Amino acid sequence: MDKTWNNKAWFMVLPVLLLVAFSALIPLMTVVNYSVQDTFGSNEFFWAGTAWYEEVLESDRFWNSMGRNLLFSAIILGIEIPLGIFIALNMPRKGWGVPVCLVLMALPLLIPWNVVGTIWQVFGRIDIGLLGYTLSALGLDYNYVSDPFDAWVTVIVMDVWHWTSLVVLLCYAGLVSIPDAYYQAAKIDGASRWAIFRYIQLPKMNRVLLIAVLLRFMDSFMIYTEPFVVTGGGPGNTTTFLSIDLVKLAIGEFNLGEAAAMSIVYFLIVLLLSWVFYTVMTSYDAER
């Protein structure tokens, strides 16, 4: 029997698609326009071609910020993904503990990004902050304002505290969707806990892990608010990521052409790396 496909449902989502396309394309084309022009004020623009792109790609400032971004994202993924899996594996599956754990996991995600930065800015101060004061009282020379290593540790711990819950919730959703029959069969076969994780739980979490890795990579690679509030990109430029450098270039130095070119390059890099992540992980999943 031939199936009849009704595509009229697309008309229901067409207004939303048009609205999203309009709100995304107009700002993007504006940035592209700025990236190929130069201005000397008085709202007069002159054609610059690819000069701004060449200046960005030849700039040590850009590549240093890029390196800090890649290092930060690698550390974040290396900590939050395993930690999120571990917490999800140890969360209860039944009883009153389930809603309690879910609410506790969701709490950090409900806090706005600027508030998270403010909390950790105060929390880490050595004069009034609980963390900073405690570490100083223990004899540890901790000061995220002046020490680059302490600044990096503070920003990383802050991000882990804020976003590990997302990985936990995604992994937990994958775990609870596994039928009990799999565990019963493993129990009959005398499978160890590692074997259950390796051959049952991890394969069933592959797709949610793909989502978790993509979301956490994109967010960590584009991070701005939290480190800007806590360290302002300092001390020096040690926590100046691409997003912070871009804002400094556009607003602080009012170099619109170079900032626009950098934002386009930044966007293309995020798009490319996300595509690579997605392609590699989906190919691995297909091979399995």
Record the strand order, biggest sheet.
Answer: 1-2
Q: Profile the largest sheet.
A: 2 strands, antiparallel
Please tell me the overall pLDDT.
86
Q: Would you give the CATH topology?
A: MetI-like fold
Going by CATH, the architecture would be Orthogonal Bundle
Transmembrane segments: 12-36, 70-89, 95-115, 122-140, 160-183, 208-225, 259-280
Subcellular location: Cell membrane
Organism: Allomesorhizobium camelthorni
Protein name: Sugar ABC transporter permease
Features:
single chain, 288 residues, mainly alpha, MetI-like fold, two-stranded antiparallel ribbon, 13 helices, 2 strands, globular
What do these coordinates show?
The chain is built from 13 helices and two strands; from the N terminus they run αββαααααααααααα. The chain is globular, with a radius of gyration of 24 Å. The mean pLDDT is 86. Strands 1-2 form a two-stranded antiparallel ribbon. The chain has a single domain, classed as MetI-like fold (Orthogonal Bundle). The protein is mainly alpha-helical and 288 residues long.
Which helices and strands occur, and which strands form pairs?
Blueprint: H1 10-35, E1 37-39, E2 45-47, H2 51-57, H3 60-89, H4 97-110, H5 113-123, H6 130-137, H7 148-176, H8 180-188, H9 193-204, H10 206-221, H11 225-230, H12 242-252, H13 256-287
Antiparallel strand pairs: 1-2
Helix pairs in contact: 1-13, 2-13, 3-7, 3-10, 4-7, 7-10, 10-13, 12-13
